[in-house]
Amino acid sequence: MSWLKHIRWDSKGLVPVIAQEQGSNDVLMFAWMNREALQKTVELGRAVYFSRSRDKLWYKGEESGHVQTVHEIRMDCDSDVLLLKVTQLGHEPATPGSPSRSIACHTGRHSCFFSVLENGEWKSVDPVLKDPESIYK
Predict the structure, then answer these.
(1) What is the pLDDT of residues 17-69, one digit of tens each?
(2) Cross-strand bridge partners of residue 124
(3) 122 within a domain of the structure (yes/no)
(4) How many domains is the chain partitioned into structurally?
(5) For residue 45, with 0-12 CB atoms within 10 Å meaning exposed, 13-18 middle and 19 or more buried, which class applies?
(6) Which among 16, 23, 13 has a CA at the least distance from the CA of 87?
(7) Which of 24, 34, 38, 71 is at 20 to 30 A from 121, Cα to Cα?
(8) For the domain that residue 38 is a member of, what is the CATH number?
(9) How many angstroms separate the CA atoms of 75 and 91, rounded?
């Protein structure tokens, strides 16, 4: 797996990863991967991250069912950030002419980037699609 050598891992052996929805190009979330997580992602065709808080591999959707199917993996020009083009599964899919209803965020929202800075305050601008209490049991 010589392709892994081209990635500039940080001092903890991690690389930042952005998950972007294929089709809409919505940025869904940011996470981290170690070598094993990236190898598993390539092998399985679904997103596997490294949870720094739990200090273990995190198979996206293992509890929530909100799995990310990976279509493409890109590396930035400095070789120190990865971009995953994904289909987010586990909720209502997008329909032509309407916004996506998939859930990527543990708060029950489509994207983890739902807060916008307005007039010096953070405001939530995206709706909760499903109560997190009903997702994580």
Answers:
(1) 999 999 889 999 999 999 999 999 999 999 999 999 999 999 999 988 899 99
(2) 115
(3) no
(4) 1
(5) exposed
(6) 23
(7) 24
(8) 3.10.20.810
(9) 28
